[in-house]
Amino acid sequence: MTELTVLETGPLATIQDRGLVGQAALGVPRSGACDQRSYELANRLVGNAPGAAAVEVTFGGLVLRAEAEVVLAVTGAPCPGTPLNAPTMLRAGDVLRLGPPRSGLRTYVAVRGGFAVPPVLGSRSTDLLSGLGPAPLTAGDVLPVGDEHEPMPGVDLAAVADPVAGELVVRVTPGPRQDWFADGALIGQTYTVSSNSNRIGVRLEGPALQRIREGELPSEGMALGALQIPPSGLPVLFLADHPVTGGYPVIAYVAGADLDACAQLRPGQTLRFA
User: Counting C-beta atoms within 10 Å of the first and last residue's C-beta, which end of the chain has fewer, N or C?
Assistant: First the structure.
């Protein structure tokens, strides 16, 4: 079987696919690639079927060695010296090295045939919150490559813009507990991404939102893109590994079209809600 060997991982590298769909009622989170658009593009560029497993790399640092000839594609946060948004061939012994990206946070590596790690509950995604799925990659791991794929798309380069490097404007829709806060309390506010952010959620630093209603909520369902307001008043934006329930009020939801861009936010970057 064709394989890739992990030589270095950088801060965090995990196997991800589309995630587990429709299991939240059983307490199983969806997980999956944080930036679904970049993940799906990587698979299309190498002719994989939708849902094939890829590697999600946080802030570069991944080094892979091909043990046989493979075709792969790198998308998402652009890492210097690495072909981006284009199918690339590695021959046996060749090394792929991802440096720190010039913008964005998460880079995706798809290999033709997909990474054939064992699925858990029908998904090959690593979930940092529940611990389901394959463990985060470590140096020395050997990643098997599957043999299921479709014809190559015949695309030499996908014209895709880099992730936003400056302030990101994020559109929101009202959440179920918006009445716990003053009208328009979130709109127009600018926040900075905290270094405590991860695949579970983006923690924000800036103006604290004050409740106009006291009391506590019973736990209720949480969804991808929810903006939850804990007692600190500082919003937390839930990403792929978010919990399926929570007891703090959700003031708003990030528009679905803006979620992938939010997954590329890096610590110190600013965002403004609209």
Answer: N
Q: What single string gives the DSSP state of each residue in 143-161? A: EEB----------S----P
**CB count in 10 Å sphere of residue 210:** 11
Whole-angstrom distance, CA of residue 184 vs CA of residue 199: 28
Phi, psi of 18 (to 5 degrees): -70, -15
Classify the phi-psi angles of 22: left when phi > 0, otherwise alpha if psi is within -120 to 50, otherwise beta: left
For 27, counting Cβ atoms within 10 Å of its Cβ (0-12 exposed, 13-18 middle, 19+ buried), the class is exposed
Q: Is the pTM of this model over 0.90?
A: yes
How many C-alpha atoms does 29 have within 13 Å on its Cβ side?
Answer: 26
Ramachandran angles phi, psi of 44, nearest 5°: -65, -35
Q: How confident is the model at residue 107 (pLDDT cuts 50, 70, 90)?
A: very high
Where do the domains of the chain lie, and which CATH numbers do they carry?
A: 3-144 (no CATH), 168-273 (2.40.100.10)
